[in-house]
Queue: 4 jobs
Job 1
Amino acid sequence: MGILPQLILESLLLGTFYAFMSLGFSLMWGVLNIINLAYGTYIILGAYTAYTLYTGLGVDPLLSIPFSFLLGLSFGVLLQRVLIDRVMRLEPFMVLILTFGLDVFLSNLLNLIFRADIRSIDVPYAERSFVIGPVIVTEVKVLVFFLSLLLTGAVYVLLQKTWTGRSIRAVALDREGAQIVGISPGKVFAVTSGLGTGIAFSSGNLYGVLQGFTPFDGGMLTVKAFLVSIVGGLGRVESALAGGLFLGFLEVFTAFYLGEGWKFFASLLVMFLFLLIRPRGLLGGKYYGEV
Amino acid sequence: MWLIFALLISLAFSQEVLKLGAAVSFTGKYAKEGELLRRGYELWKETVNRRGGIKIGDKRYKVEIIYYDDQSDPKTTAKLVEKLITQDGVRFILGPYGSAQVFAAAGIVEKHKALMVQGGGASSKIYKQGYKYIFGVFNTAPDYGKNLIDLAVSLKPKPKTVAIIYEKDIFSEDAARGALERAKEKGLKVVLFESYPKGAQDLSSLMIKIRAKNPDIVIGAGHFRDSVLVVKQLKQFKINPKFVGLTVGPPVPAFVKALGKDAEYIFGPVQWSKAFNYKDPLFGDTKGYVEAYRKKYGEDPEYHSAGGTAAALALQIALERAGTLDVEKVRKELLKMKVETFYGVIGFDETGKIVTKPMAVVQIQNGRPVTVYPFKEAEPVYPKPPWE
């Protein structure tokens, strides 16, 4: 016993955030069949949006989530229409190059505007915590946990219960079939890209509350989202949840028992193992549409 | 009237001019520190010249310092130092600001067998190259950790356990190892000695560990942002050690600004503080130096300026004792030196590193860093009260 409940709690809280954070990445991968290398920097863009709103206008980063989401949504739709649509039908490799370039461009743009200093959103409740028996709980992490859970749930409902969600799943499952029943893949691509980018931006708000960030932290976050998608599988919202929790447990336990320095290494090692042994991931269906 | 008279006399004696050179940052990220360093050099120069210059052998030399702007870039420092030596004919170099800049300059100085005394770089790397012509008046990284432990064990009730966490970079690791070594010497039980990766922004796992061990002392070795992060997370995890020491951060005003009340009672080492109390051949004593500085610049000196003045002063004393401008002989005098100055006792080991001077430790009290060790502006507050 002793330390174990504490570690499990930390893993759960962190893992749920990772799940929500990676949802957009997994969605874009599953539906558009693209790997968006700029995804992590989208998250950082969200964090800077929240930062600017907080320092400039005093808007709480948790309250500005809808704003970040809408900003990400428009950004994602625009990007899909103007750039990604053009290269998506060519070789998949082209999208990788495009999004990689986008990543470099966006992170350097942030660096120009905000400089390379580490920024943090110092909300007044950032340091509050309470003790239950042997366990100490930090309030921010609990807030982020519930918000992540809520938003992940919202995405689940959207995909399952609405016409938009159904058409997204239909396109993911079978592009041509979807066209036959009157769904325009172009529109669905734009909506999915917008939704995914919106998720990235709004998870940026949460990320910014959890820890400090710099313009160049995106790459590492992309890798984490990648890992969550590989481990969980691309199937459903539930797979992102499974992958996120897995990463949460892995990071917390490695950091505790082996040291902080091993965290990233262990994650990458596990990712390789999954790719070798179980490439479809823990709950891997094929795409978001598959039942 | 007397001033003019004194000036005339000094002019009459100071026919000869001794040219020194320095590549200091006037622009770029070290512009502020570079300017402070230059002030230290200038104060020394003026004071010496007012006294009639440096007496070397039977001649009196008026001091001139040639400055170049290295733009905070080590490569430029190297080029400019080369220019000073080869084109301006300078044999005695006053150091630049910043460990990387000093390191770059050192290679050039060594190549040309010139001599550099520096008060701008604290990395122990500078002294591990086997260089013979480089001397430095800053304590190196391990001392940052050692002094914190020295202070901690001098307090009552004596702490028994210590946790040391550090960022994985050369400077911080050196500082942490200094603390580890001294803690073992002093019989403290080291319950945690662990690093975190550079740029880490969440130390939750380390905090859980520290919380489980509940140590009397927590030492954090990292850069400014890490120090702020460590304090925030110690508070977040309700960890209340009796003594919190951070190698970088507490002396800087930005530390209190970033943490507000949470910065209270945290300890941090500094190279030098105006609370030092030593006699000095040029300024009378530390107080005399502080007054001279205040008179010239309208503010109190801090360690960047003091380091510059001390480096120049050490060179001056060595020149006077050698009685010649021969680099080899001056170098021998530097190696032999053990002299009390406003800055502390200056003496070097064979690598050119200062070994005779303690660092000071400050503690944040009422939003201000005050020196509590080894000289006391105020009594250290210990044990640290719990977070609010």
Job 2
Amino acid sequence: MDDTSRKLKVAVISPTRVGFEGTGDSIVVPAYDGLMGILYGHAPMMTLLGTGEVTVKNGSDVHRISVSGGFLQVVDNEVSVLAEEVGEPSSHGSGAGDAG
Amino acid sequence: MAKARDIGRRMNSVQSTRKITRTMEMVATSKLRRAQLQVREARPFADRLTTVVENLVTPELAELEPMLRQPDRIRRAAIILVTSNRGLCGAFNVNLIRKARALLAELQASDVETEFHVIGKKGISYFRFRNVDMAVTRTDISDSPSPDDARSLIDPLAERFVREELDAVYVVHAEFKSVMSTPPITRRLLPVYVPQERPSREPYYILDPSADVILARLLPLHLVSSTYRALVENAAAEQGARRTAMKSATDNADDFLTTLRRQFNRARQQEITSQLAEIIGGAEALKG
């Protein structure tokens, strides 16, 4: 399978705004009992969110979005993060000195 | 025939009204743009949450979770009516009030004790004038409502629903379909809709923690998000209605001004003609 088809569709949204929408190779979310990593091909899942940062890696790009409370749904390689609150996203390229 | 000066005075008055309606139209347009954005941003969250909740809820869970209580008979209900704080938006508030009154009549006909929660000065003054009791009146919700506004509105009602003091909560608000179409609609917030047959739950989700724990957290969020959406849509619809109303007022003023200007010119010309006739007549008489 080629590279582009093995991407997750990611949406980080709150009641007031869409914090992030795009694709990613992997995503790390703060679940209610600790961090949880999701890769392509994850089984359908629902869980609650805690407070922390969602990290979306797409190639060499890294997006971090702070979230608090809410809910996570994974289905058909679509990750929906429905948070009660979503902060401003910040992006880093690979050269930003962030080992992540 | 009216005097030219009288017509001129009327023209001035129409002109200044036109200036006001034109300004209000432009203000509404810019507020509408912001409100539209808010609606667009609120919809994905509310839609997905609704889908998820409907997916998770089963009749078995409904018996465990107090917020999913499905009363056999509705004895006490609350209606939240969302109207605007300001007028000059055409039939916007009248339509909402009519819808709420229809629902009230319907509920009272089936012997439901109904309380009224009214948001917005326009709705409040209507029902105060008609001596209808209102449980809650609020005018503090602005043009751009926040989820906190929604929370402060729905949380006390949700608590009373859980304590079985209320059996249903309805909200009447304007739906923002487009700028031109903002029909009033009624939504039932509580009890939460539970599909009767067991959802196939395709695909089989891993639930962590279990469905009842997830639901206990999601239901309040779902309520707030539905209420927030109602407030936001109503705010956008109000601006849309005001823009339409003010646009037609401005257009009317334009038409009116054209007619008045024609009358004014005719009157002015007639005055000049008769003055000329007098002068010439006088001059002729002096010549002898």
Job 3
Amino acid sequence: MEKKIIKFRWWIIGVSVIVTLGFSLVLTRLEIDPDLRNYFPKTMTSMVNTDRIEEVFGNQDLVMIIFETDDVLREQTLRRVREVEKEIGRLGGVRRTLSLFSSRRIHGEEGIMYVEPVIDRLPRDEQERNLLKDQIRDNDMVYEVVVSKDFRATALVLTLAKDVDEKALFEQIQTILSGHPGDETIHLGGLPYIRQAINKNIVRDGLVLIPLALVIMLIFLYVVFREWRGVWLPFLVVVMSALLGLSLIPLLGWKFTLITLLVPILLIAVANDYGIHMIAKYQELNASGNGRTMKQMSAMITRSLWKPILLTGLTTVAGIAALLAHTLIPARQMAVSAGIGILFAIFFSLVLLPALLSTLQRSAPLHHMKEKPAHQKRHVLDRFAAFVVRRSRIIPYVALALTLAVSTGIFFLRVDSNEENFFPEKHEVKQAAGIINDKFGGSENISVLFSGDMLDPVLLKNMEYYRQELENMKEIDLTLSFSGVVREISKALNDPGDPLYDAIPPSRNAVAQYMELYSMSGNPEDLEQLVDFNYEHAHLVVRINDATAETINKIVDRLESFEKDDPSIAAIGGYGYVRAQLANKVLMGQYYSLGIALLIIFILVSIIFKSPVAGLLGITPLTVSILVLFGLMGLTGIRLDVATALLSSMMIGVGVDYTIHFLWRYKEERQNRLSKDEAVTRTITTTGRGIIFNALSVIVGFVVLLVSSFTPIRFFGILVVVSVLSCLTGAMVILPAILMRFRFRFLEPQEAGRDRTLEGDLKQAG
Amino acid sequence: MRTIAVSIILGLAALAAVTGQDPRDLIKKSHDAVKVKSFEAVATLTITDSRDNQRIRENTMASMTIPDGTEKRIIKFLSPPEVKGTGILIFDYPEKSDDMWIYLPALRKTRRIVSTEKSKSFMGSEFSNADMTAPGLDDFTYEMLGEGTVDGSSCYQIQSTPASRDLEDVYGYARSVRWVNKNNYLVQKTEYYNFDGDLFKTIENKAFKELDPENHKYMVTHMIAQNLSNGRSSEMVMEKVAVTATDPSYFTVSFLEKE
């Protein structure tokens, strides 16, 4: 095969370049999708129900502009809010605005119903302000909706027009806000704004992280190889396979998501491994200086390395492919694009790289290659090996105890599917979310869809009963429902003391007449989010400020108990519910993809070493590192989220390489009739260097994630380091100790001949 | 060359003919043409939402303007059955806020409503109350845009722009364009543009009835509003239109409560 590579080298180079460039053209069509709801599978019950509710009541996404100061009823603050609202209300992309100024105070007194704006005249002194505060506290449509309980924040709530260009709209809003300066701190919140911020940050991250990762990789390659061909050849493999992997995204009709951001970084970190081994082998052959031509050397490299590269490459692909079983749609897309990207990297490393190398002039052998590797390092590894051998009796038990201790953290592991937490604590989105949760009843929704005759007083009384029951739960701050509106109207049309006051009226005609009068005096769209045009569907919205899965599950359980006995409850949905269900699914998806990854790795390692015991040995260090990873996440409070949930099965694919390398070399040394002690020492001091080096390149590739603008991606970066280190410990400490303590027939000396290995080559390459 | 010269001359002549008319004057005439002191009618209001759901309301209405400028209006629902008999009585004073009474037959109850703000929508439809009454002439500046034909009638095309920023906010649009019939000064069609310059609503007056042939006073008997921003449309058809609503006893609470 390797001879054909040299023979057809120009064909290989030409076709590779043309195919890569051709595919890369579609990257110009790449679109970003910042909308988390598109990441969820459409078949989830909560998602199906939410879609159904949105079909009737439209998208519930609101934008909130929050003005925060000591007292929002101060004259200058009110003036500012009024001016800003007027200007924003003029924007074509804004369908409605709601604020202290556009809200009304409807109240009944002595047979008269008063309809007034909440603020008729700006209050001028403390006394007027206190009077206004009392009126606001009595107004359910305003208190905690547009003014916070403590009067330190007031909200301007925007309903956006359909299909509005959100980016342009937020620019217009920012211009208006800066045109009306003031002392108040302004926060922007709501899903459309969060989406916008996510979009902006994905672009920023893409533009910063990818080039930065490439630069770091270039420096790393130069430090390692000290010659330019050692830099650009592996680099080319990385760039080409990353381009091909990424081009699959637009090609398959997918969009770039927060998670997809990990694809190029993963490819940069992992895809260079194979090229690095090839270059190391070249330098080793070159240094041995026995007058081989470039063509001969290039062919030799592929011949000696295709097996280990293919094996370790396939296990990595297997780990990533396990993400196909994941709940999140972008995770499955990542499995495809990153998996195929790595297959290309294997192909380019084994075929394109030698083809290119064979066209180059022979470089001068590197000075340090001729010498022994640095003494100190060898010394450190020798001492390390001696330690492992000496302590091999207790290492498995200490490791087991430590693993068990850390893995208790798994019980504290929490799942998070809230967009707000994509941003660091100090980020404006996060701060705005904090205020909305603290002061405005929360930003998370659960929705209940009622279907039937919405003018029927019996149905309305039931709806009102459910609403009351929900409001009595301490987790719920605010509920909105059509029945609540009918009651509110009854307060305006009847005097206190009248049995009709603050109640659902007794007859269907009375409800119809209430509504007719309301629609005459208000904006026709006022109620369209709570009841539909034909009074056939109504909506009960529950706002929650503590959007943990446990709270939401508790509320949904309560709602389901109502639903069981009431056919008029047609669906329970809302994004709060979707997220809670997703959280459960992320956890399940995690177990699935972990299980699948471990199974595939078990089978592959069993095949490689022709022994199922080898398969078990192979997954032991991985299991330890997974337990440690989840345990640490639980103990440190890092949550399993859209990004960190992808980590474990990916790391299995990458981390298993170390185990394979170790077992391969150890087996070889045993077959050379070395004792267990000697074989372990030999493996640690030779192959161990390659393994450490390999792990280092992965860490270096992922370390750029620490400067991402997204918290989950940053944590992903940190956790990669933890995982790589624990996989490393598993392979270099626990595995050798186990090998020494127990007898494994597949590793024992047999008649098998000696095979060249990647690790051996790396050892020599240094 | 000659054809170009001729068309330039003809074009200039046409422009002169158009500019010969003062747009403000034309708008005043259009207001006057529909100014009737009193009327009564049976009206059918059909509101259609973006999904073609319809809400059909049939009611009788009467209006009378007394010498001090106060317009008294009464509206009573005929159908659908669940709201039959529901009524509303409004005294629309020229200077102060409206007085309003509502009657709910299901509870046999009348309630007075004091509202400091005028409702923007006419009975929950896409017609605004400003569409139903003539707005203040001085609230706008006018510009002649040209001529056009609507439903076969030759019209002046006149643009009205609110005279101040505050008035823009009161009326809720940046400008409107009216097609005013050259013969009788009736507005055939109006287009409304939002502050981004986009068309968001049109109102077409499809039919008129001449109530007072002597003074050339008309009543719009068929109008259609299309709201492009929410996809809703409203249609109002007036039947049995007459100028007979001159009995002051129509405009009282006791008449409101009569079923």
Job 4
Amino acid sequence: MSAGIEENVLELQGVVMTFGGLMALSNLNFKVRRGMIKAIIGPNGAGKTTLFNVITGSFPPTQGTVTFNGRPIQHLKAHKIADRGISRTFQTVELFGNMTVLENVMLGCYTRIRTSFMASGFVLSQARRKEKQIRENALKILKFIGLAHKFKDLADSLPLGEQKLLEIGRALASEPELICLDEPAAGLNETETHVASSLIKAINAKGITVLLVEHDMKVVMNISDEILVLNYGRKIAEGPPEDIRNSPRVIEAYLGAEA
Amino acid sequence: MEKITLASQLLQYLITGLTVGSVYAMVAVGFNIIYNVTEIINFAQGEFVMLGGLIMVFMNVAMGLPLILAFPATIVLVTVIGIIIDRFAIRPIRRPSVLTLIIATIAVSILIKGTASFIWGKDPFDLPAFSGRNPITFLGAVVQPQYFWVMGFLIITAVALSIFFDRTILGKAMSACADNPDAASLVGINVKQMILLSFALSAAIGAVAGITITPISLMEYDRGAMLAVKGFAAAILGGLGSFPGAILGGLIMGSIESFGAGLVSSGYKDAFALIVLLVILFFKPSGLMGSIEISKIKRF
């Protein structure tokens, strides 16, 4: 997108999200600087996944603005936001289970090739060339995430750790500027967690901004440049990992007031 | 006159059965396209076939357009009707459950049938055969040249669709919507557009079936429902969602009907399809080529 180079990829202002009487996010303001890894942490039910759903357009916020690359996106549908350059993964893996690993990543490229949408569907020679290009690109991504050898397997047949990697791979295929990862290490063992964290660093090294929701504090402290702490839908702290680690408010939120 | 032997008689039933079966197969394929993208069973599928036949009669006979023009024009018109159905009957339903949408398709089929009886009346219409009506005799069986057109178009549709769904990203994007609609929209697939496309494609295939079969069996306004039932039985027989299954199911269904009518009684012709449907639903609901695993996770 040629909206000039904004220093902040993403900016939320006064975002409120209510479900009936429940306030899931209340007056949330924060910025994500270009090229950083920013983690969002907080106890269960703090509103982290809701926040992701608002950013990626699964549902529009009740109030407030979400600005991506200097343009408001809070009113856009999910597929339009994906078009603009935000992609995401899910806490509960959401792959195309009956399709192969390769097809999953190929579909991730969908936003980038849709420009010649009708042409790619109906003009055979052109379609074949496009398909080949998409395929090669998808294979490259599979190599990057370390799943190239399993490209023919059905996504459902992979172990959880690899499904999570594949989901990240599919998110990468759209060449996003911002990638939102919802608990990439949840349910993974030590080795898998290690693989996932180095992958996140490698993605960031490619210049992609990472927004991360994660419960595994070791992962968060190791890889994030900045941490935002939510509790009951409010921001209670924001700053570099060492500040957050020592913040009394954060410790209180996690351990209860007595601690 | 040649002597009619039992063998030539059976061959005759088989050829007729495969021809009629090709039409059922195309209807079943139409069911599957929409089902694979939305999990909806579109009970207006038979109306596409009826409209294909009757609009072709209008273009070709009443307006006098040559076959080569009337054929694509009819397909385009029926496709537009398919698009209109999605746009005005399916998409506006708020918070749809699969069942609600299926009921909406039944309403649409009644509406189309009513409109058709208004426009064309209740009489069946004939269409000139594409390449004449001089039958060819083959091992004692009589084959209308039109039979080849019907089967030929089934083959063309089958090949084109399998290329589309297996080899093109657009085809894969359509299947992705059924697999996981939330994930599909998050990778940037416009799910609504894909649903629209599935209705358009199904309507086009229905039109082809209607156009090619009308010279053989004529076409009238209320043919859609029975075609839908038989096509649905064929889709279930082959395994809902499977394209090879739909084609196999259609051909088997046509043959059963033809042999049943010839050997048992033609009065029970329509009953055979329903008996097959019931037997399959009792004993192997996943169909011949459907997978039990997949049918378990589907909502319908």
